[in-house]
Amino acid sequence: MSLRPPSVPDKDTKPAIPARHVVLIVFDGVEAIDIAGPASVFSKAEELRPGSYRLHIASPAGQTVLTNSGLRLADTVAFEQLPMPIDTLIVSGGDEPAVRAAIVEHRVGEWLARRSGSARRVASVCSGAFALAAAGLLDGREATTHWRVCDQLQALRPQVRVQRERIYVRDGPVWTSAGVTTGIELALALVEDDLGHAVAMEIARTLALPLLRGAREPQLSPALQAQSAASGRMREVVAWIGTHLQEDLSVEAMAGQWGMSPRHFARAFAAEVGHTPARFVEQARVAAAAQLLVQTHWPQDRVASRSGFRSVDALQRAFARQLGLAPQAYRERERRRASPGRAALLPLK
Q1: pLDDT digits (tens, 9 = 90+) for 264-313
Q2: 229 contacts: CB under 8 Å, gap ≥ 6
Q3: Do the strands 174-177 and 168-171 form a parallel or antiparallel pair, or are they unpaired?
Q4: C-alpha–C-alpha distance, residues 64 and 27, integer Å
């Protein structure tokens, strides 16, 4: 069975500029997912739109690179052998000693400072942001990195406006992403910027992503935080709620779904998750509705229905409780905050 993605209608995409050279910068100790995730996204984009991208895995000397998981990347391209012009430069991340060695010993930051000016855009995944900072590319800009080292980046480079609660940030031609798997979402955003929303969504479906998060989503999702202290059974409940928002999520219905009495279910959920079932469900529905408000042109009644609210009034009351503002006010605020070039929305159907 072929997993090749189906074709996407041309009307929802922009024509590709042939052979955009995309360069992934790697080094010994690099995080394997930081490379594999974006590489998979761009390769899927090339399948959908042949001639769109030419991907290069590059290292300072063109040597075999050993990732932090023990995987080896053979035949990487040396920096001096990269083609011109480079369209997109993406610096992968890794553990602190590996990133430091790349910057100090292999002078990746210096190389970026020289070559970035001729690239259309520059990006980083996770701690790769430190290489961009060393090159001076983040000075005066908003940027993010893995939540564990945001404070370190801010202390090291006070000129950077570090955004701790973002999965990726675009500031002009410079893009940065949070940790590890967010490199996939960063790459999807880059592809969407080039080829349109339909292509990005088709890639997301091909990669079986459960959700295509927006840039302003928190690095640590509420669901993940709720699961951190819960038992195996309650972790399953939390995950199930997130994928069944349109169903009856009353205590009685969920207790029956999981073979528990309503009273025992409510007590166990509150004790392990830290919220009552009703509060957690409302938070999950508000989060889903908030994303739809920003990413679509849908009217509020459709947003309410899709995120599990029975009426627009219920949606509005939940927004007032959770966010302190009306859905339309939230939509307008987030659209104003959106970075240039990120206004591609789901079609109204």
Answers
A1: 988 888 888 888 989 989 988 988 888 888 778 899 999 999 999 999 99
A2: 272, 273, 274
A3: antiparallel
A4: 9
